[in-house]
């Protein structure tokens, strides 16, 4: 309510500044009437433009809100989709991968030792 009251006071001051001064001079009443009509039409047009702009902004925000709600719903569904069985399967797969990694590391060490021995034999033959 306070914002609306301040806006009305601001509009009154603008009207008085733009139109009231010309009306007080009383030089040409018909021109003043045309100015009042033009002023009011301009204000109505600016308010209509503001309404359209706010409507477009509101539409954009509603679309953004809907997009975020869909993302949130998908995230919740993803979180609910994991069960204890899924975690057990992941643990089992993790264990298999670790075992395979250990085997590969062991083979790598054996190949390094073999390469070292081969290099040693090669150097001793020279």
From TrEMBL:
GO terms for cellular component: cilium. Keywords: Cell projection, Cilium biogenesis/degradation, Coiled coil. InterPro entries: CC_CF, CCDC113/CCDC96_CC. GO terms for biological process: cell projection organization. It is found in: Cell projection, Cilium. Residues 45-126 form the CCDC113/CCDC96 coiled-coil domain. Pfam families: CCDC113_CCDC96_CC. It comes from the Eukaryota. Belongs to the CFAP263 family. This is Cilia- and flagella-associated protein 263. It comes from Cirrhinus mrigala (Mrigala).
